[in-house]
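FAQ: What does the model actually see?

It sees only this:
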Amino acid sequence: VWPWLSHRAVKRYIAEAGGEVVGEDFVALGEHDHAPHFERIRRARPDVVFISLIGVDGIVFSRAFGEHGLSRHMLRLANCVDETVLLGVGVENTEGLFAASGYFERHSGGAGERFRGLYHAAYGPTAPVPGATAQSNYEGLHFLDAVMRRAASGDVGALARAAEGVVYSGGRGEIGMRRGRVEMPIFLAEADGFDFRVLERF
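And it is asked to produce this:
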C-alpha cells in the first residue's frame, strides 16, 4: 500500500508544479534485474527518477543506476534512503541522489543526539549508523506508549481515538498527531559521500 500511496501523492505534486510524469514502474520485492527499467528510463529521458524501493532493493537499484551511467544525465529522489543505504550503494554511485526524510542521523538536533547517545550506550561505539528506519522503530514505540497511556487500553478502536492530538517524543524531538497525520518537519538532502547534506527543511 505504501508505495502506491506515495506514488499517487508524488504524481499529484508533480502535476500541481506543472510537471509531467513520463513513466512509472512497480517491481516485486527482491527483483534485482533492472535492465528493462533502465532502458525505459533512457528512452523517456526524465529530469528526475523517483525511487520508492526499500532496503537491499533500493541499494541494488541505485548502485546499478550509477553503474549504467544514468546519474550523469538525470537526478534521483528517494523517499526511503538513509545513511545505511548509502553504505551499500557506494560513493561512486551516489551522484545526483537526493532523499526526502523526516530524519537524517547527523542533522537531528538535541533530540537526535540524545537518541544516538542511548543507542551507542546500548550497542557500543562501533554499532551501525542508526538511520531513519532505526529511528522510526524507536519513535514508533514511544508513540505506542503515549497512545496506550492516554487510552488506558490496548483495544484498537480506543487506541485510534486516543491517537488524535497525542504528542510524544522520539529521536526527532516532539511530534504531534493531528487529523490522522503526524506533524513533523521533512528535510530534502543530497548524498555527500556516505552522509547527507541537508538542503531544505519543510
